[in-house]
Amino acid sequence: MMAEVVDIMQRRQPFASVDIHNNTGINPHYACINRIEHRFMHLASLFSRTLVYFIRPAGVQSMAFAQLCPAVTVECGKVGQTAGEVHAQEFLEACLHLSRIPDHPVAAHDVDLFHTVATVRVPGAYSFGFGEQPVDICFINDLDHLNFRELPVGTTLAQLDGVDGLPLEALDEQGREVADRFFRVDGELLQTTRALMPSMFTLDERVIRQDCLGYLMERYPLPD
Fold first, then answer.
1. In the predicted structure, residue 163 carries a pLDDT above the cut 80
2. What does pTM read for this prediction?
3. 183, 170 contact by CB (below 8 A)
């Protein structure tokens, strides 16, 4: 069905593609792109100065439509937040009033560009919780407040109970396991090993089991 939608829209030669999302953690409103190209960044910057470049997961609208036109995914905060609804509407209005999408470079002072470098998951073998719970991995109770904050080396994310080795999985863009690049166990504490920025860290246990705990990002240079 999705392939049919893309085929139909390819014949219609779309001007831009916008995928509107909510998320479950505490995140600012931001825009995602799958290509480092000026038109994509101009379109995204109409929504937010905070831009995130990613190529995984691959099965997303913006990835498919990037072959046809500038494409973005806009993250509008949690479900039910009126500010997110208003922001999405204002962005769509702005898109509909564009005569063209610029192809000159975006000014460096106008955007902050980040690159998603890993997807973090909790293996099913481990129990987890937040705050003070008798579980294998007890994350800090305000884990989602770390989103879009640049964390220093040694930031504590969780208290561990009887866990051997790293209790998290982290897959990079090529699907390789890279958890030891980002995390370490110091005694009973799970900590970061390098400066990084999380996104979409959530406290929703169902989402964590079905999808992931969140993503790790690093700053990305703007193209010339």
1. yes
2. 0.93
3. yes
